[in-house]
Amino acid sequence: MNDSARKIREGDARALARAATGIENRDPQAMETLRELAPGTGHAKIVGITGPPGVGKSTLVDALASALRRQGKTLAILAVDPTSRITGGAILGDRIRMQQHHADPGIFIRSMATRGNLGGLARATAGMAQLMDAAGKDYVIIETVGVGQAEIEIAGLAQVTVVVLVPGMGDDVQTIKAGILEIADIFVVNKSDQPGADRVQQELEAMLSLTQGRRPPIVKTVATDGQGIDELLDLISKHVPAPKPAVPARPSIDHLGIAVQSLEQSIAFYESIGFAVSHRETVDAEEVHVAMLPAGDSRIELLEPSVPDSPIDKFLAKRGPGLHHVALRVPDLNAAISRLQAEGAHLLNDPRPGAGGHLSVFVHPASTGGVLLELIEESEN
Known about the structure:
CATH class of the largest domain: Alpha Beta
Order of helices and strands: HHHEHEHEHEHEHEHEHEHEEEHEHEEHE
Helix content: 25-40%
CATH superfamily of the largest domain: P-loop containing nucleotide triphosphate hydrolases
CATH architecture of the largest domain: 3-Layer(aba) Sandwich
CATH topology of the largest domain: Rossmann fold
Radius of gyration: 24 Å
Largest sheet: 8 strands, mixed
């Protein structure tokens, strides 16, 4: 077990925060830490809090956090926020509203930017939840950015999904009903001290009467003063998640490999337009120096030959600096290799550790339509 994983298991809050940042940036060292921690997961209750903007999700999460701490439970709050157009990071509205918990070592709060990801979550949310579980948190509460009918990814991640509504929504309940009827394990009518709370409950009961099988409970709350929070928490703690059908994972872009004559000169250019190097290493098996620059949910890898006559050196001599390969994350590398071999694809190597320590295999451009392709075992669950 590496040093970071060991410190997280021992309760080191700084190591946990550094790993969380690394997972958001898809730093290879942080992803390796996550892999090492994976056997220790399965303890935490993963709770999704979702619903349209303005229903008081953050206030509800804040109240649930206080109730859990009174029970002596530890928790992590992952608040998915809109992405700032200026910084590219999260607009930290949720963290501002949870300042009362800032000094509590039993609560870890992290705001995460969607970075253009649809569905109400950030792409790194699943990995972050796994990290918090491995760190020993009793509960992981995930607050979505604010969802509508199609933004229902939280149901695939959370063990219990709480859909929050409020009085006065009018036709909004009808607009989102197709989505919420499918994902809700518990309905919350928040701000139930306001006129119209009974009507919202009646509309929900009427919609649920048209469905077959499951009938999620409906809880009225006033999160600002704690009304209904204990009842809600009791339902959450007792909820037994139904088995969910496996959804086949699709490949996604891990990084773009760019061959360069000089790492230092190339890094200076990329830093001038706002990139930052997260990791550097030398991969002896590929005879290359690598600098990694996070770019949203993927990254750019700058590749400089470490010895003369290496593959990258030959590429530069023949074609000059430029795009060397495209790397894809696949859910099962061995299965992907078997399919490619059955189709007669030309593989350039057996699976071997690449930059960041992940297993990878290269596919010849003749089999891919003209670009060298690297397949990497998916490291985020």
